[in-house]
Structure to design on (143 residues):
């Protein structure tokens, strides 16, 4: 049921589908992870037996990706609705473009960009470099 619901949401949103394709193809090592906190914090967590398991870290990573994906999608949907509303205001006022108020639209697009940046920040630089090199090779082959 959950898979069917997600497929329906993906079919309604190219953004959601694109983010999900990447996330679906991630591979995690369920046995280990790299702790990125301070040494003091790590020692405290070990003493208090509060170090997260690899599964906890993976789940947290995926949940954060999903949250940022949802923010991007929502902000883009809201921006589309705002644009259509503002365009209608212009149309109803005989094409008076001064009726088009851009502040809310720009705010929504900035919020979407911020969330997208946060989502993309999860992607390791070496993965980006690998992807870019593959695309460059494919482009050279297609000419």
């Amino acid at each position: 049921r959950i898979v069917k619901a997600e497929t329906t949401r993906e079919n309604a949103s190219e953004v959601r589908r694109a983010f999900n394709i990447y996330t679906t193809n991630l591979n995690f090592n369920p046995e280990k992870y790299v702790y990125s906190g301070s040494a003091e914090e790590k020692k405290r967590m070990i003493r208090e037996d509060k170090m997260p398991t690899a599964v906890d870290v993976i789940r947290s990573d995926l949940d954060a990706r999903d949250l940022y994906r949802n923010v991007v999608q929502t902000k883009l949907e809201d921006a589309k609705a705002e644009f259509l509303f503002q365009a209608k205001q212009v149309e109803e006022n005989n094409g008076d473009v001064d009726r088009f108020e851009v502040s809310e639209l720009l705010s929504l697009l900035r919020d979407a960009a911020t969330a997208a940046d946060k989502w993309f920040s999860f992607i390791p630089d070496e993965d980006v470099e690998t992807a870019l090199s593959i695309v460059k090779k494919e482009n050279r082959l297609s000419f």
